[in-house]
Structure of Chromosome partitioning protein:
Amino acid sequence: MTDILLGKAVVGAPADSEIVRDVVGRAMPELPEPAPLASHGPARIIAMCNQKGGVGKTTTTINLGACLAEYGRKVLLVDFDPQGAASVGIGVNPHELDLTIYNLIMERGVDIRDVLIPSGIENLDVLPANIDLSAAEVQLVGEVARESVLARALRPVIDDYDVILIDCQPSLGLLTVNALTAAHGVLIPLECEFFALRGVALLVETIEKVRDRLNPALEIDGILPTMYDSRTLHSREVVARVHEAFGDTLLHSIIGRTVKFPDATVAAEPITAYAPGHPGAAAYRQLARELVARGDAA
Ligand SMILES: Nc1ncnc2c1ncn2[C@@H]1O[C@H](COP(=O)(O)OP(=O)(O)O)[C@@H](O)[C@H]1O
Ligand SMILES: [Mg+2]
């Protein structure tokens, strides 16, 4: 069960030549625990992006961030969704905030260090958002260099962190374009159901436009299947289709469907704190190790 949730299937071969394969049959690479870092920064910035809602962007931001922090990486979570779900999910009360990312990007003279707050988890800080941010989308339209407002706002702390994860809102609007302009890489969480595939082509097109016009170094780090149900053929078929269409952009790691994720959100904790021994926590630790192994995270 654990192996399946981790996206591994142990193929029935003799013990001395046992090969561990992922759900599409590729041999799993070794994913060792990352070596401790002697020094920190500059950060690699990764945007969690999919214009569809409810696919696991926020869950991935919080739990990948917590796992990288567990491995000693200094991590900043950037909540860039007016819903503020990443802030709430890490224990921040959005109504008690004097300053949010809205003030940082829309007002002059706001210091990012006055806006970010420690999450209570070692090595993990958060740049919080609340509903105020919904006004920014409209207000930014008239700004000079409106697509690179977030990139400029993050610059002063880039040397303080190893990884900065941006939780995007479910749209391809100006806030998301700002996240893609600020980012080095994009991680695409994809819910394991057929209609989920439809939006990916449009998302990839948007990413390519941003690469052409605004951020030539932008890479797609990977597609992460989420809410995978090992009991259904359907989940497996969706992942196979993603592999066919996108090849090794499909990560080896997959995230199984489990109620522990919504439960952890209600508890306002990452799964690594809420249920550290659960396969869901192991799945996000594996994702963290895979990104480090691919060079997508420090
Ligand atoms: N792997 C999973 N298994 C079960 N539920 C999940 C999983 N990942 C996320 N969820 C739940 O699905 C809902 C949407 O997830 P969320 O991360 O908020 O998506 P998004 O940010 O893309 O809108 C939340 O209630 C969350 O707790
Ligand atoms: Mg979200």
